[in-house]
Amino acid sequence: MILRRACLKSRKRSGGNCANTAIVEGEVIAADSNGGPLPFQQLMRRLGRVRDIAAMRQVPVQLYLFDLLYVQGRVWIDRPYRERVEKLQRICGHISLVPRLLPSSREEGEAFLQTAREAGHKQLMARALDSPYTPGVRGRHWLKIKPAITLDLVIVAADWGYGRRHGWLSNYHLAARDEENGELLEVGKTFKGLTDVEFERMTERLLALKASEAYGTVSVQPEVVVEVAFNNIQESPTYQSGMALRSARIVRLRPDKTAAEADTLQMMRRLQQGDKGLTL
Questions:
Q1: What is the DSSP string of 206-251?
Q2: CA distance 238 to 258
Q3: Do 22 and 72 form a contact (C-beta atoms < 8 A)?
Q4: What is the pLDDT of residue 60?
Q5: Hey, which end of the chain has fewer CB within 10 Å, N or C?
Q6: CATH of residue 57
Q7: Residue 92, in any domain of the structure
Q8: Across the chain, what does the average pLDDT equal?
Q9: Quick check: is 279 in a domain?
Q10: Contact 175, 187 (CB under 8 A)
Q11: Are 118 and 247 within one domain?
Q12: What is the pLDDT of residue 5?
């Protein structure tokens, strides 16, 4: 949950490090008993429960601030980011700020990213120190930094496309392998990553593997393996696997792999839980 132009009103405390009125930007995350981040879906459970206080308390949340727009009658959006953060540190009171680092080397930055990931976060956001605040626009002053994570998954079905993709099988059902019994279970869909020529070739290949068709979806024999990039893995009541890839996109075909060599549900679960022993 992003607090856009949220008005922060707090009484002055001893020490004077808070503002009577300020407009700040921050984020609310669901937190576990140790203060670590929980999946966004946990936070969604609180929405719409204005009166169900007991249910809301089952999902503790933590507010983190990361930018300042206005304080004590003055607008700060045109001030450099460095100045806005310094001011925010002085007026935030007891509200936590997002952890920050001004690295002196690439190695220091990479260590900070690794620490964040071990704590359960997915990525870092790099911001130019001289950048102004541009409402509603990230622009060239913000840059997401995250490790590239991919999985080798099997296409088990595909939907007929529409619009520009009419006539192509272009929305691919992706499955991972259960290492205990070899069963392939779906973990997401994607139509992203292929060129028009690749869509045409993929359509021909999948139709040659067609097993059945119903309601615009063609089920195929599980022979096509693709490398898939994604943002994160979230809980899903939709899929039997219980997991779903967010923002999945095909990176490349893997003709060198068979379905029996696809990545497993168990590996995905470890990734989801932030297993530090996995090498990505």
A1: HHHTEEEEETTEEEEEEEEEEEEE-SEEEE-SSSTTSEEEES-EEE
A2: 26
A3: yes
A4: 78
A5: C
A6: 3.30.470.30
A7: yes
A8: 81
A9: no
A10: yes
A11: no
A12: 39
pLDDT-derived band at 57 (thresholds 50, 70, 90) equals low
Q: Rounded to an integer, what distance in angstroms lies between the CA atom of residue 192 and that of residue 48?
A: 33
**Pair 154, 225: CB distance under 8 Å:** yes
Mean pLDDT within 143-166:
86
Can you read off the two tokens belonging to residue 144? Answer: 């997401």
Our count of domains for the chain comes to: 2
Which DSSP string do the residues of 141-200 spell out, in sequence order?
Answer: GEEEE----EEEEEEEEEEEB-GGGBTSEEEEEEEEE-TTT--EEEEEEE--S--HHHHH
Final residue belonging to a domain, choices 113, 145, 177: 145
Residue 71 lies in a domain: yes
- Does residue 193 sit in the same domain as residue 115? no
What's the average model confidence in pLDDT over 31-60?
66
User: End of a domain among 122, 145, 168?
Assistant: 145
- Examine the domain organization and report whether 44 and 90 are in the same domain: yes
Model confidence pTM above 0.85: no
Domain check: are 32 and 103 in the same one?
yes
The strand pair at 61-71 and 96-97 is best described as parallel
List Cβ neighbours of 178 (8 Å cut-off, separation of 6 or more): 184, 185, 264, 265, 266
Token output for 128? 């130019």
Say whether both 171 and 140 belong to one domain. no
Q: Which two tokens stand for residue 113?
A: 């990213």
Instruction: Provide the CA 231 distance to its chain's centre, in angstroms.
Output: 5
Fill in the amino acid letter for 35: G
Give the residue among 241, 244, 206 at the shortest CA–CA distance from 225: 206
